[in-house]
Give the backbone structure.
Amino acid sequence: MDFSLAPITERVRAAAADQTPLRIRGGGTKDFHGLALHGEVLDTRVLRGIVSYEPSELVVTVRAGTPLAELEAALAEQGQCLPFEPPHFAKPPSGAATVGGMVAAGLSGPARASVGAVRDYLLGVTLLNGKAELLTFGGQVMKNVAGYDVARLMAGAWGTLGLLTEVSLKVLPVAPGEATLRFEGINQADALRKLHAWGGQPLPLDASCWVQDEGAGTLYVRLRGAVAAVEAACKTMGGTRMDNATVAADWTACREQTLPWFTDRATRPDHALWRLSVPATAPVLALPGGVQPLVEWHGALRWVQGPESAGDALREAARAVGGSASLFVAAEANKPGASGAFDLQSKALEQIHARLKHSFDPAGIFNPGRMARAW
């Protein structure tokens, strides 16, 4: 019997009966994101610990309240990792990011375009639904033919469908070869052309970042894979090879949004951080004010700093190339977070999401208003 889960189950049952909103919270490191934070806090960190780990099978099952850093350390001891590089966004003395929060947020780091997202490594979940029923979906294998792949619905659901108690994840060995190449004095258009050309070649591309600083653009490309493949790519791609130990901190800063490009927003309190998700082959976007974005994911992710009033123009620029734009961090720290996080472009999709919410949480007690104002 899981004694730590019993009080949580009873609290969910009581909340459903009284229709009391509950705010599911792990470390709270991503509280800045989402429409609103409503309800009594239901802390998941009591659900902690690695349940099982089979390095030879590349599978780990971990309780949702486990600190993400604790899981990553256990994997590193075995030469393995979460290849999608989930961001922590932890700022001491605040709480540490949790595994459940990682899945609920569904956010991935610099390598996402090459290795996949959180949902692609999610094998199974156990959760409490809005009726306080403990449900298990998926398992510990990649091939799941037992009906719908419900487990992956939880990735990026922001706790609106249920309270995660355990998750099973596929992990991968750390790549034996790694190198970062720097290309200085390159504008955004030329950087995108290079990335598009490399994307059509058998190169071990892993991550990329283009940023403009004081009028000069610089492109960083990280390679990971077999040692021979990485070394061959370094010889053909050009650029300046950087020291791995030195540049590792920069890639972490990119993942955690602590690069100077991100932190400079503090000097412009009226500016928000916008997230534009577009096809990797999209050209340079016509952005309001001619601002220059920080470009990740080989061109597919473009971060933009600008006032919240620029929202309509940014959304239109993204949609013009088949993408979407959302407000990732509001201009003011005490305001609700991302008013465009759930950017549904059709009534049909909106209805599907609303029906899923009602099926899992009929009383609407879990994180109400976090993703959509209507539920």
In short: The chain has a mean pLDDT of 92. The first helix runs from residue 5 to 18. The chain is about 25% helix and 25% strand.
